[in-house]
């Protein structure tokens, strides 16, 4: 096994960011006699998978070649035929893969089918962690049936997200905000609360400028449908094949007149009744799962941040720290609400990572320990 070819497969896979969902990011490199004869990566659903594109490029040279790939080849009929069968038909000699596909329809069956056909299969365990991280959202969805929910916030060093009088300007730098756009580009959906929309008149769009396989679904949690039809969010919504990129999550207490006005403007209004007359965020996440959204990013204010954490829907934190201190009791903390009354009841994070953003900023990434 040559690790350089597997690294190249990973780099190819990354080119599918924003394009492959709801499928995984996959890169494939075919090597024969030490020479790359075919390359491919997955882009749009329904388009040939990475393995097939590599086979097409290699042609007859695929016979006797070794396939380097970051994830197990599929073995089931979906929008496209099984890749394992195509590899067998092409008479490749061996496969070097970084991980098994967690999709229950595959889950080792692809490897088994290849081995039964006389193709050697090697698992590169030293690349397993990288492979897991590369397809974090896909893997989570396949194992839980739910999208990976990331709570993102920009905070001062003392944990504040807003000043009491004037919130002009940014907490973090342009460099940090560009990193946030990368997270948005990799997300299938993004959610905020009505308070944030009314206060900032935000758009919540993917501003990377790079293509996507499907629009970023923007969701506003709005119990009483206070979202103005003249807001940037509503004015910018688009409907493609009868599907709107703006979803307003509300309750049955909302005005029917307001509902019809928003729907006329192009928004999709859905009712998710929860405790205390609030939107039930767990129902929102479950609905996203039915839409095969692999990931949801929450960019909201103090109240919705707490509601999301308290409800247990948050899987990952991504907190960007600007080198500033606001202080005071009136500046809004990142998380408000009732909070936890005891330290022993605190919500815990694990696998915490520090991302340095030169020259003076950093981001903290961590995964919520469920059941705390």
What does this protein structure show overall?
The mean pLDDT is 93. The protein is built from twelve helices and 18 strands. β12 (246-250), α10 and β13 (268-271) form a beta-alpha-beta unit. It is of the alpha/beta class. α3 packs parallel to α4 (109-116). Helix content is 28%, strand content 24%.
Estimate the helix proportion, in percent.
25-40%
**Number of DSSP strands?**
18
* Residue-averaged pLDDT: 93
Elements, N to C (H/E): HEEHEHEHEHHEEHEHEHEEEHEHEHEEEE
Quick overview:
The protein is an alpha/beta fold and 372 residues long.
Primary descriptors:
alpha/beta; 372 residues; 12 helices; 5-stranded mixed β-sheet; 9-stranded mixed β-sheet; 28% helix
Strand and helix map with partners:
Blueprint: H1 3-14, E1 27-32, E2 35-41, H2 50-58, E3 66-69, H3 83-89, E4 94-97, H4 109-116, E5 120-123, H5 128-134, H6 136-144, E6 148-156, E7 160-162, H7 174-185, E8 189-193, H8 194-200, E9 217-221, H9 232-235, E10 239-240, E11 243-244, E12 246-250, H10 256-264, E13 268-271, H11 281-290, E14 295-298, H12 302-311, E15 316-322, E16 332-333, E17 349-357, E18 361-368
Parallel strand pairs: 3-4, 4-5, 6-14, 6-15, 8-9, 8-14, 9-12, 12-13
Antiparallel strand pairs: 1-2, 1-3, 7-16, 10-11, 15-18, 17-18
């Amino acid at each position: 096994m040559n690790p350089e070819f597997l690294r190249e497969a990973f780099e190819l896979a990354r080119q599918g960011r924003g394009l492959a969902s709801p499928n995984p990011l996959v890169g494939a490199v075919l090597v024969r006699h030490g020479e790359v004869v075919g390359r491919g990566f997955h882009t749009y659903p329904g388009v040939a998978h990475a393995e097939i594109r590599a086979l097409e490029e290699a042609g007859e040279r695929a016979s006797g070649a070794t396939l380097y790939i970051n994830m197990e080849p599929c073995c089931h009929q979906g929008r496209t035929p099984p890749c394992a069968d195509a590899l067998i038909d092409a008479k490749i000699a061996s496969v070097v893969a970084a991980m098994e596909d967690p999709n229950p329809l595959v889950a080792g069956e692809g490897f088994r089918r290849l081995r039964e056909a006389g193709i050697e299969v090697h698992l590169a365990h030293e690349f397993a962690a990288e492979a897991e991280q590369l397809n974090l959202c896909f893997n989570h969805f396949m194992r839980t049936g739910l999208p990976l929910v990331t709570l993102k916030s920009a905070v001062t060093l003392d944990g504040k997200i807003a000043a009491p009088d004037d919130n002009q300007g940014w907490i973090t730098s342009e460099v940090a905000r560009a990193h946030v756009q990368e997270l948005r580009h990799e997300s299938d959906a993004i959610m905020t609360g009505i308070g944030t929309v009314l206060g900032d008149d935000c758009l919540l769009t993917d501003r990377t400028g790079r293509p996507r396989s499907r629009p970023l679904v923007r969701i506003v949690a709005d119990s009483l449908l206070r979202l103005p039809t003249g807001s940037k969010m509503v004015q910018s919504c688009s409907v493609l094949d009868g599907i709107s990129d703006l979803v307003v999550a509300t309750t049955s207490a909302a005005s029917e007149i307001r509902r019809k006005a928003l729907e006329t403007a192009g928004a999709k209004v859905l009712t998710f009744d929860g405790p205390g007359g609030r939107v039930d965020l767990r129902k929102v996440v479950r609905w996203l799962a039915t839409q095969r959204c692999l990931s949801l990013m929450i960019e909201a204010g103090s109240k919705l941040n707490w509601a999301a954490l308290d409800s247990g829907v948050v899987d990952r934190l991504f907190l960007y720290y600007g080198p500033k201190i606001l202080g005071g009791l009136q500046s809004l903390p990142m998380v408000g609400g009732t909070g936890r009354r005891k330290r022993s009841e605190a919500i815990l994070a694990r696998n915490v990572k520090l991302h340095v953003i030169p020259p003076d900023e950093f981001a903290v990434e961590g995964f919520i320990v469920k059941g705390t």
